[in-house]
# Entry
Amino acid sequence: MATPAWAGWIEAVRALKIELEGVTTSFRYPHILIGRQPSYPLPPPATIYGHIASTLGEYPAPDSFRFAYSFTHLGSVDDYEHTWLIERDGRKAKQGQPEPNILAGLSPTVREVLFQPRLTLYLDRPDWYDAFRTPVFPVLLGRSQDLAAYTRVEIVDLEERSAGYFDHTLLSFDPWRPRVGLGQGLLMPRLIDPVDRQRVTWARYVALNNRAFLPLPGESGREPQLIRAVPQGYRVWVDPTTRERRGRQRALEWLTVRGEGEALDLPA
Amino acid sequence: MPTTLSPPSALGLRWTDYPLMDAALAGLCVFSQVRRPEDLTAEHLQTFQRWAEDAYFSPEVTSWISVVFTSNFINYSFTPAKRREVLREILGSYQRPGLLGVPCAIFPELPAQQRVARDLMPMLMGRGPMNFYPDGQPGLPLSGQAITALQGLSLAAPLVSGRALVLDADDKQLLLDVVAEWQEPWLKRISLSRPGDEKKPIWAAARTRLMEAIRKVIEKQPSGRGPARLPFAGGATLYHLTNSGQGPDAAIYTLEQPALRFMELASQNFPGAWKPLFDSRRYEADKTKDSAFGFRNELDEALFSLPDEAPFFLRRYLMPPFTQALREAKAEARKGKSSKKTEKNAPPVIPLAGLWGITELFLMEVVGMEKARVEAVEALGQRLGRWIVAENDKRLFRELYEARGAGPLRHVLLKAMLEKSKGDAKSGTEDRDLITTKDEYLRIFTEAEEVTRADFTLARDLLKMRVIQYLHDARFFEENRDDPELQNTELPNEEGEK
# Structure
């Protein structure tokens, strides 16, 4: 079993916090390519990696950062769009004509679109503050037409607490699935190797579309929102600038896009 | 919970977490009577191959293939010998080496054999288009093992309403158990399918089919299991897919564990109320659908919208029996004019006390309402009910019942408070309890910042349900059945409701 992303998180308490707003977004399932293209409910780590790269202007090393986020939207709707399907044109050239290259055909596609996305992204790289203040490429989230904007970029000092709440976020399947009643188990692309794009690392997550509360000392109960137990040694870092709910503030689940992990952690 | 990846077997099969592949592997495991894909051997695949070489040409599986794999070998333009040869080639892919020079996209530890399109892996594009693939290379590189294993979908993903029903469960044990529930009748259906037969009634209602299977899985668990414990962790996602050339489509339904726990606890703890409530939402299959696998239960299907749609669920499924109590009083008043038809069409009687228990369970298990808040609603409902009965205040009940927004509701509560306080002062009674207090109101209807709670409608409807239950138990409606004020009382529609 791979070392969990949070295991090495000890001293870094300063984090970069970015708030993003958009009009629409969609995170398609990579292997559902025809007919209706549903959207993941939350952005996969590979999407976050691409997003960061577009802001920095280059792909950072996959193991050079950790991230946490909270993502909400107002609702989803199926939109109708045209996809140009491109194929190699295998026909022979006619006399005097240029060599055929590609063929493109229009294909109507239904795509699930999430309306008014809001992303609060945390990075353990406060030194990227300037980059997020002046992104290299246009700010997008999701498809190339899903323009977005950073509404706030700031550095926050995280605080270690005994409890907090996970807020519309991804949790690592292991160790959280047996402990969290809410949420959908989902396989998501974690890293698409920018050099060899055929190499994709996948991992399973709990996509939490609600809030789940880490228990306060001595707290127990049957509520679905209450996380049943916290993994041994888990340190709860909260953003002290967030809204207090049930005596707790937003806790961050740090994730990575590193190539190793449960998805490829196979014995030789 | 076997969710993490395990070492490959000689065949190289293991759980992958890819919904289609894991469902297919579960189909093969159940068919081969093994509990893990790692235990699948070449002999198991050969047995499957022998079954498939016969079954794939039955009308039942031919239809299934056209929906799931679009494989053209089932076309009658091929000779029967050619069709069998193509099928043998697909099923025997695992026996050929992977020489493509890239890893398999699903089992990256295995070399890929070929780049596949939608005829070998559902929901990919056709063989030509290069969009959405890296480096413009059409197709997904898969190993021979993956290509053969995907055919296991024929053992795991029955056709329901013309689409394949693919389950992705967080707990692989649940996946195996549900596939086992589906596989037996599915294989029986296939074995009875003969060329020239009339079209059989179809299976329908995807979400109901999953809930039915889960209930059977739970029933088979050894007794002694704790009442609040399900025999599996996490939830499930249902992929209802068609890869058909006629119109591919994908619907995804999520079943979260709180909804499952609610269903299980409601049926265990309140069977007297749960059964009639559940049965009242069952719609029998028409003649085009299979009687055992074609009926639909609306309540089952609504569980997939939880917890997000909890206020809607409460209003649509748990509240109507309470309002029915009021309707019954009206019907009673009109009895002279009413015909037998009214009685015949009346919904089954659901005991309100048990239903309030189910409602409380729903609040605790699905909504996650704090116990103190549930108790506050209960207490306020009781006090209001008692006051309405004591004063025979039909107008107050009507105003409460018809109140939609926070303002009108507050007005009703304030009015009741004032009336009771004045009454108490006049009578000099010792019972000088207020109908409600500021703290209680804030606890039920507002959050810390004293803004109206996002789930205001839920709290409001709960209060109405509790008051109606009290009035029903006190025979208030029966005693006032001739009252015109009560006759004209109607529940207001929510915005967007018809």
Notes: Residues 37 and 111 of chain A are 5 Å apart (CA to CA). The helical segments of chain A are 45-56, 129-133, 173-176. DSSP finds three helices and 15 strands in chain A. The longest helix of chain A spans residues 45-56.
